[in-house]
What we know:
The protein is an alpha/beta fold. About 35% of the residues lie in helices and about 10% in strands.
Amino acid sequence: MRLPLLICAAALGVACNTSDSPSSPTPTNEVRYGVIGASDAIGFGSSAPCGLFEDCAGNGYAPIVKRRFQADGATVQLANRGIPGGVLSLAILGLAQETGRTDIRGTLIDQSAPFIPSNSTHISIFAGGNDANVIGQAVRAGRGGANVAGFVDQHVNQFGVDMVDLIGRLRLRSPNARIVAFNLPNLAAAPYVSSATVLEKSILQRIAVGMTDRINALSAQGVTVVDLMCEPRSYNPANISADGFHPSDAGYLLMADLLYSALRSGTAAPPPASCPQRTLLPVF
């Protein structure tokens, strides 16, 4: 139902309009923020991570965003549905199980999205890091055979299909929510793969760039995409935790800065179609 323009909350930077578009939630001073992600959603790698499904005063991006909204005068309900060790869909979960991975704990589509509150006003998504690693491990296990590029592209394409599915489910469940999604940085440049061969890194680059392109394409469905791939600060060692994969406190603060701006306004600079960070390794 449309509400009068008079209730728009300028303090939250929410544009006043009469559109029924799901990217423009009804403006009020009450924020109901749902979070979909993996271990990043609970702030793993920070000095103060939260527990599973916990709303805590941590140093991950989700609690920081909550505090930013509160500082702007909003009442905030945070529904953190992050699943540490989670992947997007059953397609990647099955691949993980086939290659002996026992640390993948669930899927965001089946075990996170259904528990986002139906009255959510804002939803953020950060998916793909674990998925990329599962595909890369499968290649190392020989699953790509003589056509590694085709194997990679098949699973990256499926990731794109599943992201569209996730957005569709969220639209049905929380029709008035503004949805913001991070794309991926080039994981081939991350310290956790520093000992990998150049070929292995090039394959991981193909996976991460391909997934980023699928996430970027969600903008056509009204999703606001926040760019990490071409953001130089994504690759600053100070923004990466000691495990070489998760963000540090500084990295989560950067993510929160970028995310809060997009959640608050519903806009973000379009991710560049090309940048040096997309080809840090030889193109596979």
